[in-house]
Design goal:
Elements: E1 4-8, H1 14-22, E2 27-31, H2 34-42, E3 48-55, E4 59-60, H3 62-71, E5 76-83, E6 87-90, E7 103-107, H4 108-113, H5 115-121, E8 126-130, H6 133-141, E9 147-151, H7 153-159, E10 162-165, E11 175-182, E12 196-204, H8 212-221, E13 227-234, E14 242-248, H9 256-266, E15 270-281
Parallel strand pairs: 1-2, 1-3, 5-15, 7-8, 7-9
Antiparallel strand pairs: 3-4, 3-11, 5-11, 6-9, 6-10, 12-14, 12-15, 13-14
This protein binds 3-phenylpyruvic acid (PPY).
Length: about 280
């Protein structure tokens, strides 16, 4: 039975690019928002969800992290990394110049990735945030106004838009990490070579936080476990209360990770394994 894969839609998003690059043959279902896509796996309406987690320029997609931490705990079973190129998309009939564009629509991360370009080349255009770059392209395709979207070439193709300006992202080497969420890992079939295996953890500190973060980092350091990311996010229980997301560049094992978890819990931390999973670096 083929798996059904949900992704942040509509068609033409970078998430759809990632899904098309990583999976073939499965049924693919578009969702308007990241929470709706995650909920669909939780409610077992679909088998797998693919949602954006982090961009190399703008950082973490907070909505994804907060939803996975505070609302729906689903295991991360894989990560897909794809290169990102942002282009300025307009109606094919648009004959004006950049100065004639009154609005620029896109996902907040896409806008942020092009902040300098927008500041220098489109200072008068009103920024309109959308749930995805594909949604922005869809809006422009249905409008007869002089408005633009920031998105990819797939979006230009599926919505019949033209590229007014290519590669408007402020920094090159732009990539986004997408997480693959699934309750039943047997449904997951990605036929690409694995780049690395990693384990993501969620750690909250004890009420007496003096030196606690140093103790957390020490628990990994003396075990020579390499951390590729540590990021704090609000617990949403009050100002100054954080949890930490830590990525460890190795798969879960039966010695080191249980040792870290036991040591940190003995120090009063809460420790959750968000997933241990392969990372696939894809070209598109
Ligand atoms: O909006 C999209 O196309 C997405 O898939 C989310 C996103 C937005 C900006 C960069 C990477 C992914």
């Amino acid at each position: 039975m083929l798996a059904t894969i949900g992704y942040l839609g509509p068609k033409g998003t970078f998430t759809k690019l990632a899904v098309d690059a990583a999976f073939n043959g499965e049924h693919k279902e578009s969702y308007a928002t990241i929470p709706e896509c995650i909920d669909a796996v939780e409610h077992e309406e679909i088998d797998i969800a693919v949602v954006p987690l982090e961009n190399a320029i703008e950082g973490t997609v907070q909505l994804t992290v907060d939803y996975l931490v505070h609302q729906v705990r689903l295991p991360i079973v894989a990560e897909i990394v794809v290169p990102i190129q942002q282009h300025l998309l307009v109606q094919p009939t648009f004959q004006g110049s950049l100065g004639d564009i009154t609005e620029v629509h896109s996902h907040s991360h896409a806008i942020a990735q092009c902040h300098q370009y927008l500041h220098q080349s489109l200072p008068e255009a009103k920024i309109q945030y959308t749930t995805s770059t594909g949604k922005a392209a869809e809006i422009v395709s249905k409008s007869d106004l002089s408005i633009a979207a920031i998105g990819n070439k797939l979006a230009a193709e599926v919505y019949g838009l033209k590229l007014l300006q290519e590669n408007i992202h402020d920094y090159s080497n732009n990539h986004t990490r997408f997480v693959v969420l699934c309750k039943d890992e047997t449904k997951l079939k990605i036929k690409h070579p694995v780049s690395i295996e990693k384990t993501s953890m969620l750690i909250s500190l004890p009420s007496d936080q003096a030196g606690a973060l140093h103790q957390v980092l020490s628990a990994f350091a003396w075990r020579k476990m390499s951390l590729s990311k540590i990021e704090s996010r609000p617990m949403k229980t009050g100002l100054g209360n954080y949890f930490f997301i830590i990525d460890v560049d190795q798969p879960y094992d039966d010695v080191l990770f249980p040792g870290v978890k036991g040591e940190l819990e003995a120090l009063g931390c809460n420790v959750t394994i968000m997933g241990t999973y392969p990372v696939y670096k894809l070209t598109i």
